[in-house]
Specification:
- 37% of the residues lie in helices and 20% in strands.
- It is built from 17 helices and 22 strands.
- Strands 16-17-15-14-20-21-22 form a 7-stranded mixed beta sheet. Strands 3-2-1-5-13 form a 5-stranded mixed beta sheet, sandwiched between helices. Strands 4-7 form a two-stranded antiparallel ribbon.
- A hairpin with a 4-residue loop joins β1 and β2.
Length: 496
């Protein structure tokens, strides 16, 4: 008995096949093998062709089936994780009308800000738990105003995971968690946010039917089954945005538990058991995978857009040609804590919610031509990303979420000892690293949704802890001094 999980990212699409009994991944694959292209027609724009996700999913599916030799009939359920906040528009024939506007596109910021001011900050925050900001609803408002011909042809709008489920099954549906990440959900009224829909002039028919996160959300269509090599009728029983799903993958379900990732974007995600929000809306609050009308489980999300792209930019432009990420970490270790006074503000990938949707750009501060070299810049980049985490964690703690333990996958920037040690030491939190990823988590989520597992504890009983990183008490002050210097430089930049 096996479970199939997909992770639809902006860099690649990954598929994992998990043995439902042992909990072990028996095969995984991702496509494309080089980072997927992002279309940027104008500064601050970011789009992708949804069909490219589907083509990568087909290749990944075929690869895991070939690797494993598993009979498709033994796959009992499918789960989907996906890049959050995207907007896919289809017509009545389920044909995509334009490229998807993805998570890091910032064109909708003015639309969300105007809605926030017009509807009232207290109204938005108390009902939506966020400003409409740069999220899916505001992106749709941009299309309505700037591409009216396309808008008139829209039958349904979807998040990227909804689109993939539609392609698999032919059915269009969504979840409360998904609607909340698009800022379409009213937490006070426990229904679609009618007041926001009316403000933007959206018809309710644009939204898909709502299904529980853990439930049957369609079955693989016969034509698709033949195309992918799957069995017709295989149920889709789970879907969630990548950050709620990452938390699920790390068995983070209850208040006070924290999950983190540092890949394309950098994220700290904490579960809150009470309806609460940041008065400045600098962190986001969405329905977690196990949220319901009778059980408040909210995911408080800090996201740094400039995480992975800064690290890859440094690799391409600063590190010696041909140097691997691991070799970069070794190079960075030659610089001291605090990078000899050098600070990097990692905000060069569009508007940052944590900075009140400002685009301040990435900048290098305190550069001394006689002191600093490549190792200082490489280290300062990693420290700058960690310090942006710390800045957001301080906001989360003000909301009543204590950050004492951070769960993370052993992947991406958490492979760097400098990154891990800096994060543990500057926050005072213990970091636990686990052997999991988003596609494996999606597969186990599907197991919960299909009733194969009775609950999350049974689903993640085999989750393997790989490492524990304790704060460096001896150097704590050095880390805090470096952070305070970075924070001062950030605040000076913000004041301009």
């Amino acid at each position: 008995m096996f479970l199939l999980g997909y992770d639809i990212g902006s860099s690649s699409v990954k598929a994992s096949l998990v043995n439902a009994v042992t909990g072990k991944c028996v095969a995984s694959a991702f496509y494309p093998k080089t980072e997927a292209a992002i279309i940027a027609v104008h500064p601050g724009w970011a789009e992708q062709d949804p069909e490219s996700w589907w083509e990568s999913l087909k290749l990944s599916t075929q690869s895991v089936l070939q690797q494993s030799g598993v009979n498709p009939g033994e796959i009992k359920a499918i789960g989907i994780s996906y890049q959050m906040h995207g907007l896919v528009c289809v017509d009545k024939q389920q044909q995509v009308l334009r490229p998807a506007i993805i998570w890091c596109d910032s064109r909708a910021v003015p639309y969300g800000q105007k809605a926030f001011e017009t509807l009232g900050e207290e109204k938005c925050l108390s009902h939506l738990l966020n400003s409409p900001g740069n999220f899916t609803a505001s992106k749709l408002a941009w299309i309505k105003e700037n591409e009216p011909d396309i808008y008139q042809r829209i039958d349904k709008i979807m998040l990227p995971g909804d689109y993939i489920a539609m392609k698999l099954s032919g059915e269009i549906c969504t979840t409360v968690s998904g609607l909340s990440e698009g800022i379409f959900w009213d937490f006070k009224e426990n229904k679609v946010a009618d007041f926001l829909m009316r403000y933007y002039g959206f018809d309710d028919s644009l939204l898909a039917d709502i299904r529980p996160t853990f439930s049957e959300q369609g079955q693989v269509h016969a034509t698709v089954a033949a195309e992918l090599g799957l069995k017709e009728g295989t149920p889709i029983t789970y879907r969630a945005g990548d950050q709620p799903n990452n938390a699920l993958s790390l068995n983070v379900f209850n208040p006070g538990e924290i999950a983190s990732t540092a890949g394309t974007s950098g994220v700290v995600y904490g579960v809150n058991g009470e309806v609460n929000y940041d008065p400045q809306s600098r962190v986001n609050t969405f329905a977690h995978v196990n949220h319901s009308a009778g059980q408040t489980r909210l995911g408080v999300l800090l996201c740094i857009n400039g995480t992975g792209i800064l690290n890859s930019w440094v690799k391409r432009n600063i590190a010696p040609e041909g140097m691997s990420y691991n070799e970069m970490n070794v190079l960075a270790s030659k610089a001291p804590v605090g990078s000899a006074g050098l600070s990097i503000l990692p905000f060069g990938n569009g508007a940052e919610r944590m900075l009140n949707n400002k685009e301040i750009g990435c900048s290098i501060r305190g550069l001394d031509f006689n002191t600093h070299s490549k190792q200082h810049i490489v280290r300062a980049a990693q420290e700058g990303i960690v310090f942006s985490f710390k800045y957001g964690i301080d906001i989360m703690e003000q909301m009543g979420i204590p950050v004492k333990m951070i769960h993370a996958g052993h992947a991406n920037m958490f492979l760097s000892s400098i990154f891990r040690d800096t994060l543990a030491s500057v926050t005072g939190a213990v970091i636990e690293l686990y052997d999991t990823d988003g596609s494996v988590g999606a597969a186990k989520g599907a197991g919960i949704g299909a009733g194969i597992y009775k609950d999350n504890n049974e689903a993640f009983a085999t989750l393997e802890k790989l490492d524990v990183i304790e704060p460096n008490v001896a150097q704590k002050q050095e880390y805090l001094d470096a952070y305070n210097r970075w924070k001062h430089r950030l605040e000076k930049s913000m004041a301009k």
